[in-house]
Amino acid sequence: MMNIDALEKSIGYSFKDKSLLMQALTHPSYLGEHKAQSNQRMEYLGDAVLELSVSTYLYDNCSRPEGELTRIRAAIVSEKPLSEVAKSISLGSFLVMSHGELAGGGAQKPSILSDAMEAVFGAVYLDGGFERAREVILRLMMDRIVSITANYKQAVDYKSRLQELLQKNGNVNIEYVLLSSSGPAHQMHYEFAVCLDGKELGRGSGGTKKEAQQNAAGMALNMLAK
C-alpha cells in the first residue's frame, strides 16, 4: 500500500479504514489491468455529500434568492474548482490508474482530478460521517466558495448575460447547437455552438452540456466585445 500519510495531512483527515481512501484513489482504467474496485461509486456518493455541504453553507451564510443560490452552487461543485483543489493537494500523484492513462497525462486531467476529489469526499463520509466530510469539504474549498459567491454572475451566468445583451433591441432567436459528444459515459466531452438567428457566434466545450453551453456563451461575449 502506498504511503498516504501526506494526503491525509493535506485533506485534514486521518482514515480509520485506509481501504476506503485507496478505493477513492483508484481510477476506472485500473480495472482493466487488475482486480480492484474503482472510485466511480464513491464519486457518486461524494458528489451528493459535496452538494449538501455547499448548500447548507450557502443557506446559512448567503442571503441571495433560491435561483441565484442554485447557480452559485453549480459553479462551486463544477469541474474547474474541484480540479484546482485536487491540484493544490497534489491528488494526482496518489491516483492509481492504468499505465496507458498515466502515460497520457491522466493524473493531471481536470475531469479525472475532479472525479477523484468527489470520491475522496465520499470516502471521508463513509469513514467518519457527514459532519467530518463537511468539515473537510469546507476547509479545502472555502476560498473558491467565497470567490465564486462574490462573483457569481461572471463565473456562472454567461448564457443570461448573452441573452440580455442580444435582446436589448427586441426578441431574437438564440440557439445552442450540439456539435459533438465523445468519451466514455463517466468522462463525456461535449462541444456546442451558440447561434443567433442561425449565425454562429461562438463555440465552447466541457465535461457537461451545461458547461459547454456556458463556455460557448462566454466565447460569444468575448467575440462581441471585440
Topology of this structure?
Blueprint: H1 5-11, H2 18-24, H3 40-61, H4 66-76, H5 79-88, H6 99-103, H7 110-128, H8 130-150, H9 152-156, H10 158-166, E1 174-182, E2 189-196, E3 199-206, H11 209-225
Antiparallel strand pairs: 1-2, 2-3
Structure, described:
Helix 4 (66-76) packs across helix 8 and helix 10 crosses helix 11. It is globular, with a radius of gyration of 19 Å. A hairpin with a 6-residue loop joins strand 1 and strand 2. It has a three-stranded antiparallel β-sheet with strand order 1-2-3, with helices on one face. It folds into two domains: 5-156, Ribonuclease III domain (Ribonuclease iii, N-terminal Endonuclease Domain, Chain A, Orthogonal Bundle); 158-225, 2-Layer Sandwich (Double Stranded RNA Binding Domain), CATH 3.30.160.20. It has helices at 5-11, 18-24, 40-61, 66-76, 79-88, 99-103, 110-128, 130-150, 152-156, 158-166, 209-225; strands spanning 174-182, 189-196, 199-206. The protein has 226 residues and is mostly helical. It starts with a helix and ends with a helix.
